[in-house]
Amino acid sequence: MAAVDNSWGNGHARASAGALGGALSPDGAVKIFRGVPYAEPPVGALRWRPPRPVATWSGLRPATHYGPDSVQAPRPRGSVSDFGLGEIGEDCLYLNVWSAATSPDERRPVMVWIHGGGFVYGSGRLPMFDGENLARRGVVVVTINYRLGPLGFLAHPDLVGESPRGVAGNYGFLDQIAALEWTRDNIANFGGDPSRVTIFGQSVGSSCVCNLVASPLTKGLIHRAISQSGGSMSPMGAPGGGSMQSLAMAVEQGVGFAARHGARTIEELRHKPAAALQLPPAGLAGAELDSEMARLRLSGWIIVDGNAIPASAHSIYRDGKQNHVPLISGANSHEGSTQPKPKSMAALEAQCAARFGAMNAAFFETYRIRAAADPLEAARLAFFEGGFNWQNWKQARLHAQAGNATYSYHFRRTPAFPKGAVFSDNATENLGAFHTAEIPFVFDNLAARDWPWTAEDRAFANTMSSYWTNFAATGDPNGVGLPEWPRCDPAADAAMIFGDTAKAAATPARDRLDFWERHYAATRPAGE
């Protein structure tokens, strides 16, 4: 066999499992490694087991194409989040690396991206997550795939019995930890600094960041964290996002999931095709499809298992037992604009009465629902402030109260929608700073959307990505030429507001955040 060319300048690098042949950017400045395996394929007998170290290989392994995404259905056609579906497969534990280090001996800060998608959609290969532009700013970027849906989070009595620790579920979460272990062990060969690893994620990826900071299994693996539009601060089992499950709840749902698929044992389920477990039946549409996707999501929430997650994230942060790392946490002004809205006022009234009980009138008054031009639209936005904005606000406050350097933000810049564009989620005039709107600015990657971006948008992307990369480098987002971003002080409650410009101000809509604070406090079980 010919000798392996390990030249970094040619886009070659060595991981612990073997040599990799990556690609170069057109100017040769950025080395790009796609489809790098970080664990053994979780197939066959390894389905619903914690990830195992990847087997070694000989020779030069090509790393020029993305690995398969976890098995998933396409996004709804016409959605603002629809980027098309790539290759899917159960063999999905791959990551991607972008580095502009001139030598693998450099020690640049590292940023590991954890994608969102409600635990049923998404991957690390989406165009918005391309790490080239961030890499040119001096960081090494890693994006990852992890197991989604039932394949990633199913719990079942048989799985509890198989586990030496008596736990089940959270396989997708353990995948993320395995990717961080790969980063610790290998990133120095890509010009990265394993002692400066920042995790950042959005939506469910942000919930994962929240829990990775809380997990005892990540001690020493992460050194900073950024939560964008999501957390896990609401009571376990609460509706509307940000929830977690107890192991008992998850096992009960797993038994029901197995029964719906004609299986009594986990071995019977292991012999089912992955697509049969992970995808909705063909031909479903409308309410039937929504219902089936909701069932899949119920098999995809982070579980308080006593191992990876010893207690609810809220109680861990409240008691100051999380990893003490610097944190950025924030959300967008129109998080709910792409989410489902109530079908009718009658449905809204019934939903709110069941959810808020004695606080029902306070909900309608706080959000001025009945006085709104479109009460159902107002309710849509209101529900998801509890599922997103309050989560990040609460995470930041508790993390700061534990003495950690914490920075809070509120993103309300409306992107440059194409004239006449129509999305299935909502009319463009109602989308505003929608869920995911900040991502192209964070990655300095506006070209991922073919929209009429302006020079001001590009300058704003430069500002946001500078804050993010400064934070990865030092644990403080501030830097030369940037408006001062104050640390989070629960008494002062200031945040960086990303709107037409970036400026620090009081946290917006405190009355609405206070409503959710009271509501969740009233519904949270003692000790949680």
Short description:
This protein is 33% helix and 15% strand.
Features:
528 residues, alpha/beta, Rossmann fold, three-stranded mixed sheet, 17 helices
CATH fold call = Rossmann fold
> Can you summarize the main beta sheet?
11 strands, mixed
**Rg estimate, integer Å:** 22 Å
H/I helix tally: 17
Q: Let me know the number of strands.
A: 16
Rounded average pLDDT: 94
* CATH homologous superfamily grouping: Alpha/Beta hydrolase fold, catalytic domain
Structural class given helices, strands, pairing? alpha/beta
Globular, elongated, flat, extended or rod-shaped: what is the shape? Answer: globular
Distance between the termini: 59 Å
**Can you tell me the residue ranges where pLDDT is under 50 for at least 5 consecutive residues?**
none
Architecture in CATH?
Answer: 3-Layer(aba) Sandwich
Topology:
Layout: E1 12-15, E2 18-21, E3 23-24, E4 31-37, E5 60-62, E6 94-99, E7 108-114, H1 132-136, E8 140-144, H2 149-153, H3 157-162, H4 171-186, E9 192-202, H5 204-214, E10 224-228, E11 245-246, H6 247-260, H7 266-270, H8 274-278, H9 286-298, E12 303-304, H10 313-318, E13 327-332, H11 345-356, H12 360-366, H13 375-401, E14 406-411, H14 428-431, H15 439-442, H16 455-474, E15 494-498, E16 502-506, H17 510-523
Parallel strand pairs: 2-5, 7-8, 7-9, 9-10, 10-13, 11-12, 13-14, 14-15
Antiparallel strand pairs: 1-2, 3-4, 4-6, 6-8, 15-16
Helix pairs in contact: 13-17
